[in-house]
Amino acid sequence: MIETWLPLLAxxxxxxxxxELLVRGAVQAAERxxxxxxxxxxxxxxxxxxxxxxxxxxxxxxxxxxxxAYGNIVGSNIANIxxxxxVSALICPILVARAALRRDAVVMFAVAAxxxxxxxxxxxxxxxxxxxxxxxxxxxxFVIVQERAAEDGGALxxxxxxxxxxxxxxxxxxxxxxxxxxxxxxLAxxxxxxxxGALLVSGAVALARGFGVSETVIGLTIxxxxxxxxxxxxxxxxxxxxxxxxAFGNIVGSNIYNVLGxxxxxxxxxxxxxxxxxxxxxxxxxxxxxxxxxxxxxTGLRINRWEGLMLIAGYAAYTWIxxx
Length: 324
Description:
Elements: H1 2-32, H2 37-45, H3 51-62, H4 66-91, E1 94-95, H5 98-121, H6 126-148, H7 154-166, H8 180-211, H9 215-227, H10 229-240, H11 244-269, H12 276-298, E2 302-303, H13 305-322
Antiparallel strand pairs: 1-2
Protein backbone atom coordinates (compact mmCIF):
# COMPACT_ATOMS: atom_id res chain seq x y z
CA MET A 1 0.00 0.00 0.00
CA ILE A 2 2.78 2.45 0.90
CA GLU A 3 4.45 1.69 -2.43
CA THR A 4 1.30 2.96 -4.17
CA TRP A 5 1.04 6.20 -2.21
CA LEU A 6 4.75 7.05 -2.00
CA PRO A 7 5.29 8.23 -5.62
CA LEU A 8 2.15 10.38 -5.45
CA LEU A 9 3.14 12.05 -2.17
CA ALA A 10 6.76 12.50 -3.29
CA UNK A 11 5.52 14.04 -6.52
CA UNK A 12 3.39 16.56 -4.63
CA UNK A 13 6.31 17.59 -2.43
CA UNK A 14 8.62 18.04 -5.42
CA UNK A 15 5.94 20.00 -7.31
CA UNK A 16 5.36 22.47 -4.48
CA UNK A 17 9.06 22.92 -3.64
CA UNK A 18 10.12 23.08 -7.27
CA UNK A 19 7.34 25.51 -8.14
CA GLU A 20 8.48 27.91 -5.44
CA LEU A 21 12.11 27.73 -6.59
CA LEU A 22 11.12 28.17 -10.23
CA VAL A 23 9.02 31.25 -9.55
CA ARG A 24 11.58 32.70 -7.13
CA GLY A 25 14.41 32.36 -9.65
CA ALA A 26 12.30 33.61 -12.56
CA VAL A 27 11.16 36.68 -10.62
CA GLN A 28 14.71 37.56 -9.61
CA ALA A 29 16.00 37.07 -13.16
CA ALA A 30 13.19 39.14 -14.64
CA GLU A 31 13.83 41.95 -12.19
CA ARG A 32 17.54 41.97 -12.97
CA UNK A 33 16.95 42.36 -16.71
CA UNK A 34 14.56 45.25 -16.13
CA UNK A 35 11.08 43.75 -16.58
CA UNK A 36 8.35 45.85 -14.94
CA UNK A 37 7.33 44.72 -11.42
CA UNK A 38 3.69 45.01 -12.57
CA UNK A 39 4.26 42.54 -15.41
CA UNK A 40 6.24 40.24 -13.09
CA UNK A 41 3.43 40.24 -10.53
CA UNK A 42 0.65 39.51 -13.02
CA UNK A 43 2.54 36.80 -14.90
CA UNK A 44 5.41 35.05 -13.11
CA UNK A 45 4.19 35.48 -9.54
CA UNK A 46 0.56 35.13 -10.56
CA UNK A 47 1.28 31.82 -12.24
CA UNK A 48 3.22 30.60 -9.21
CA UNK A 49 0.43 28.81 -7.36
CA UNK A 50 -0.82 27.29 -10.62
CA UNK A 51 2.51 25.67 -11.47
CA UNK A 52 1.64 22.26 -9.94
CA UNK A 53 -1.56 22.06 -12.01
CA UNK A 54 0.29 23.09 -15.17
CA UNK A 55 3.09 20.54 -14.92
CA UNK A 56 0.79 17.73 -13.78
CA UNK A 57 -1.77 18.24 -16.55
CA UNK A 58 0.88 18.49 -19.27
CA UNK A 59 2.69 15.40 -17.96
CA UNK A 60 -0.59 13.48 -17.78
CA UNK A 61 -1.50 14.55 -21.31
CA UNK A 62 1.86 13.38 -22.64
CA UNK A 63 1.46 10.09 -20.74
CA UNK A 64 -1.88 9.42 -22.43
CA UNK A 65 -3.95 10.01 -19.28
CA UNK A 66 -6.48 12.72 -20.24
CA UNK A 67 -8.64 11.78 -17.25
CA UNK A 68 -5.88 13.00 -14.94
CA ALA A 69 -4.95 15.96 -17.17
CA TYR A 70 -8.43 17.46 -17.46
CA GLY A 71 -9.69 16.02 -14.19
CA ASN A 72 -6.92 17.99 -12.50
CA ILE A 73 -8.02 21.24 -14.17
CA VAL A 74 -11.76 20.86 -13.58
CA GLY A 75 -11.31 19.28 -10.13
CA SER A 76 -8.93 22.06 -9.06
CA ASN A 77 -11.43 24.72 -10.07
CA ILE A 78 -14.23 22.99 -8.17
CA ALA A 79 -11.95 22.59 -5.13
CA ASN A 80 -10.86 26.24 -5.35
CA ILE A 81 -14.46 27.43 -5.13
CA UNK A 82 -16.08 24.93 -2.78
CA UNK A 83 -13.22 23.84 -0.51
CA UNK A 84 -10.79 26.77 -0.51
CA UNK A 85 -13.48 29.43 -0.83
CA UNK A 86 -15.49 27.75 1.91
CA VAL A 87 -12.56 27.42 4.32
CA SER A 88 -11.46 31.02 3.68
CA ALA A 89 -14.99 32.38 4.29
CA LEU A 90 -15.29 30.28 7.44
CA ILE A 91 -12.10 31.82 8.83
CA CYS A 92 -13.09 35.35 7.87
CA PRO A 93 -16.03 36.56 5.74
CA ILE A 94 -14.73 37.37 2.27
CA LEU A 95 -15.25 40.96 1.17
CA VAL A 96 -15.61 41.36 -2.59
CA ALA A 97 -14.64 44.48 -4.51
CA ARG A 98 -17.33 45.58 -6.96
CA ALA A 99 -14.79 45.85 -9.79
CA ALA A 100 -13.51 42.32 -9.15
CA LEU A 101 -17.07 41.01 -9.23
CA ARG A 102 -18.04 42.85 -12.42
CA ARG A 103 -14.97 41.90 -14.39
CA ASP A 104 -12.96 39.01 -12.98
CA ALA A 105 -15.71 36.86 -11.48
CA VAL A 106 -17.73 37.20 -14.67
CA VAL A 107 -14.67 36.24 -16.72
CA MET A 108 -14.16 33.20 -14.47
CA PHE A 109 -17.73 32.08 -15.12
CA ALA A 110 -17.45 32.77 -18.84
CA VAL A 111 -14.25 30.76 -19.33
CA ALA A 112 -15.69 27.86 -17.29
CA ALA A 113 -18.78 27.85 -19.52
CA UNK A 114 -16.63 28.13 -22.65
CA UNK A 115 -14.51 25.15 -21.59
CA UNK A 116 -17.59 23.05 -20.83
CA UNK A 117 -19.07 23.91 -24.22
CA UNK A 118 -15.86 23.22 -26.14
CA UNK A 119 -15.34 19.90 -24.35
CA UNK A 120 -18.88 18.84 -25.27
CA UNK A 121 -18.72 19.69 -28.96
CA UNK A 122 -15.09 19.02 -29.91
CA UNK A 123 -11.85 17.41 -28.75
CA UNK A 124 -9.24 19.65 -27.16
CA UNK A 125 -7.20 20.27 -30.31
CA UNK A 126 -4.07 22.36 -30.76
CA UNK A 127 -6.20 25.08 -32.35
CA UNK A 128 -8.43 25.28 -29.28
CA UNK A 129 -5.36 25.24 -27.04
CA UNK A 130 -3.84 28.15 -28.93
CA UNK A 131 -7.13 30.07 -28.71
CA UNK A 132 -7.32 29.55 -24.93
CA UNK A 133 -3.75 30.75 -24.45
CA UNK A 134 -4.39 33.76 -26.69
CA UNK A 135 -7.45 34.58 -24.58
CA UNK A 136 -5.32 34.47 -21.41
CA UNK A 137 -2.66 36.72 -22.95
CA UNK A 138 -5.35 39.17 -24.02
CA UNK A 139 -6.92 39.16 -20.56
CA UNK A 140 -3.58 39.74 -18.83
CA UNK A 141 -2.79 42.59 -21.23
CA PHE A 142 -6.17 44.16 -20.52
CA VAL A 143 -5.53 43.95 -16.77
CA ILE A 144 -2.05 45.47 -17.17
CA VAL A 145 -3.50 48.39 -19.16
CA GLN A 146 -6.11 48.99 -16.46
CA GLU A 147 -3.51 48.75 -13.71
CA ARG A 148 -1.29 51.28 -15.43
CA ALA A 149 -4.32 53.56 -15.72
CA ALA A 150 -4.50 53.47 -11.88
CA GLU A 151 -7.52 51.17 -11.88
CA ASP A 152 -7.92 48.04 -9.79
CA GLY A 153 -5.64 45.16 -10.84
CA GLY A 154 -8.38 42.71 -9.91
CA ALA A 155 -8.07 38.98 -9.50
CA LEU A 156 -4.69 38.55 -11.17
CA UNK A 157 -3.18 41.24 -8.96
CA UNK A 158 -4.76 39.68 -5.86
CA UNK A 159 -3.49 36.23 -6.86
CA UNK A 160 0.09 37.48 -7.10
CA UNK A 161 -0.32 39.49 -3.90
CA UNK A 162 -1.60 36.43 -2.02
CA UNK A 163 1.41 34.37 -3.06
CA UNK A 164 3.87 37.16 -2.27
CA UNK A 165 2.36 37.61 1.21
CA UNK A 166 2.40 33.87 1.89
CA UNK A 167 6.06 33.72 0.88
CA UNK A 168 7.75 37.15 1.15
CA UNK A 169 10.83 35.66 -0.53
CA UNK A 170 8.91 35.70 -3.80
CA UNK A 171 8.61 39.46 -3.77
CA UNK A 172 10.81 40.96 -6.46
CA UNK A 173 14.23 41.96 -5.05
CA UNK A 174 16.17 45.07 -6.04
CA UNK A 175 17.47 44.88 -9.60
CA UNK A 176 21.09 44.24 -8.74
CA UNK A 177 23.56 41.40 -8.65
CA UNK A 178 24.49 38.77 -11.20
CA UNK A 179 21.98 36.93 -13.36
CA UNK A 180 23.55 33.48 -13.07
CA UNK A 181 22.28 32.55 -9.60
CA UNK A 182 18.58 33.36 -10.28
CA UNK A 183 18.78 31.34 -13.51
CA UNK A 184 20.29 28.38 -11.65
CA UNK A 185 17.53 28.59 -9.01
CA UNK A 186 14.87 28.67 -11.72
CA LEU A 187 16.51 25.73 -13.52
CA ALA A 188 16.64 23.69 -10.31
CA UNK A 189 12.97 24.46 -9.72
CA UNK A 190 12.11 23.41 -13.27
CA UNK A 191 13.88 20.07 -12.82
CA UNK A 192 12.01 19.46 -9.56
CA UNK A 193 8.57 20.29 -10.97
CA UNK A 194 9.10 18.11 -14.03
CA UNK A 195 10.26 15.22 -11.85
CA UNK A 196 7.43 15.85 -9.39
CA GLY A 197 4.85 15.93 -12.15
CA ALA A 198 6.09 12.63 -13.56
CA LEU A 199 5.97 11.01 -10.11
CA LEU A 200 2.51 12.40 -9.37
CA VAL A 201 1.07 11.15 -12.65
CA SER A 202 2.61 7.68 -12.36
CA GLY A 203 1.50 7.47 -8.72
CA ALA A 204 -2.04 8.55 -9.62
CA VAL A 205 -2.27 5.94 -12.39
CA ALA A 206 -0.99 3.22 -10.03
CA LEU A 207 -3.41 4.35 -7.33
CA ALA A 208 -6.34 4.19 -9.75
CA ARG A 209 -5.42 0.68 -10.84
CA GLY A 210 -4.76 -0.48 -7.30
CA PHE A 211 -8.14 0.69 -6.01
CA GLY A 212 -10.07 -0.18 -9.15
CA VAL A 213 -11.30 3.36 -9.83
CA SER A 214 -10.94 5.42 -12.98
CA GLU A 215 -8.00 7.74 -13.60
CA THR A 216 -10.56 10.51 -14.09
CA VAL A 217 -11.86 10.16 -10.52
CA ILE A 218 -8.31 10.21 -9.14
CA GLY A 219 -7.57 13.31 -11.22
CA LEU A 220 -10.72 15.06 -10.03
CA THR A 221 -10.11 14.36 -6.36
CA ILE A 222 -6.68 13.38 -5.00
CA UNK A 223 -4.59 14.98 -7.75
CA UNK A 224 -6.77 18.11 -7.91
CA UNK A 225 -6.68 18.64 -4.14
CA UNK A 226 -2.94 18.01 -4.02
CA UNK A 227 -2.09 20.48 -6.77
CA UNK A 228 -4.46 23.04 -5.20
CA UNK A 229 -2.51 23.11 -1.94
CA UNK A 230 -0.65 26.35 -2.83
CA UNK A 231 -4.00 28.08 -3.43
CA UNK A 232 -5.30 26.74 -0.13
CA UNK A 233 -2.28 27.99 1.80
CA UNK A 234 -2.25 31.45 0.21
CA UNK A 235 -6.02 31.94 0.57
CA UNK A 236 -6.05 30.78 4.21
CA UNK A 237 -3.15 33.11 5.04
CA UNK A 238 -5.03 35.99 3.38
CA UNK A 239 -8.15 35.10 5.38
CA UNK A 240 -6.18 34.93 8.65
CA UNK A 241 -4.83 38.40 7.88
CA UNK A 242 -8.43 39.59 7.37
CA UNK A 243 -7.73 40.18 3.67
CA UNK A 244 -10.78 38.43 2.30
CA UNK A 245 -10.72 40.40 -0.95
CA UNK A 246 -7.26 38.98 -1.66
CA ALA A 247 -8.53 35.45 -0.94
CA PHE A 248 -11.40 35.98 -3.40
CA GLY A 249 -9.09 37.33 -6.07
CA ASN A 250 -6.69 34.43 -5.56
CA ILE A 251 -9.48 31.89 -6.14
CA VAL A 252 -10.93 33.68 -9.16
CA GLY A 253 -7.52 34.36 -10.71
CA SER A 254 -6.43 30.75 -10.21
CA ASN A 255 -9.56 29.45 -11.93
CA ILE A 256 -9.00 31.73 -14.91
CA TYR A 257 -5.37 30.62 -15.16
CA ASN A 258 -6.38 26.95 -14.87
CA VAL A 259 -8.86 26.94 -17.74
CA LEU A 260 -7.12 29.31 -20.15
CA GLY A 261 -3.45 28.77 -19.33
CA UNK A 262 -3.27 25.16 -18.19
CA UNK A 263 -6.13 23.88 -20.32
CA UNK A 264 -4.72 25.70 -23.34
CA UNK A 265 -1.15 24.48 -22.79
CA UNK A 266 -2.28 20.89 -22.25
CA UNK A 267 -4.35 20.93 -25.44
CA UNK A 268 -1.52 22.56 -27.39
CA UNK A 269 1.10 20.01 -26.29
CA UNK A 270 -1.03 16.86 -25.96
CA UNK A 271 -4.39 17.25 -27.79
CA UNK A 272 -7.03 14.71 -26.81
CA UNK A 273 -10.71 14.23 -26.02
CA UNK A 274 -11.94 15.28 -22.61
CA UNK A 275 -13.24 12.13 -20.84
CA UNK A 276 -17.01 11.62 -21.13
CA UNK A 277 -17.51 11.69 -17.34
CA UNK A 278 -16.02 15.18 -17.13
CA UNK A 279 -18.02 16.37 -20.15
CA UNK A 280 -21.32 15.06 -18.78
CA UNK A 281 -21.01 15.89 -15.08
CA UNK A 282 -17.89 17.62 -13.75
CA UNK A 283 -17.50 20.40 -16.33
CA UNK A 284 -21.17 21.45 -16.01
CA UNK A 285 -20.74 21.29 -12.23
CA UNK A 286 -17.71 23.60 -12.52
CA UNK A 287 -19.92 26.08 -14.37
CA UNK A 288 -22.65 25.73 -11.74
CA UNK A 289 -20.37 26.30 -8.73
CA UNK A 290 -18.78 29.26 -10.54
CA UNK A 291 -22.26 30.75 -10.83
CA UNK A 292 -22.91 30.02 -7.14
CA UNK A 293 -19.71 31.84 -6.16
CA UNK A 294 -20.70 34.85 -8.27
CA UNK A 295 -24.18 34.80 -6.70
CA UNK A 296 -22.84 34.60 -3.15
CA UNK A 297 -20.36 37.40 -3.86
CA UNK A 298 -23.05 39.60 -5.41
CA THR A 299 -25.29 39.44 -2.31
CA GLY A 300 -23.90 42.24 -0.21
CA LEU A 301 -20.45 42.07 -1.85
CA ARG A 302 -19.33 39.48 0.71
CA ILE A 303 -19.29 35.73 1.27
CA ASN A 304 -20.44 35.06 4.82
CA ARG A 305 -19.50 32.19 7.12
CA TRP A 306 -22.79 30.37 6.58
CA GLU A 307 -22.19 30.57 2.83
CA GLY A 308 -18.71 29.20 3.43
CA LEU A 309 -20.23 26.26 5.31
CA MET A 310 -22.54 25.64 2.36
CA LEU A 311 -19.56 25.60 0.00
CA ILE A 312 -17.66 23.11 2.19
CA ALA A 313 -20.74 20.90 2.47
CA GLY A 314 -21.06 21.03 -1.30
CA TYR A 315 -17.49 19.81 -1.71
CA ALA A 316 -18.03 17.00 0.78
CA ALA A 317 -21.12 15.89 -1.19
CA TYR A 318 -19.18 16.09 -4.47
CA THR A 319 -16.35 13.85 -3.24
CA TRP A 320 -18.87 11.44 -1.72
CA ILE A 321 -20.56 11.11 -5.10
CA UNK A 322 -17.27 10.56 -6.94
CA UNK A 323 -15.42 8.17 -4.65
CA UNK A 324 -16.60 4.56 -4.31
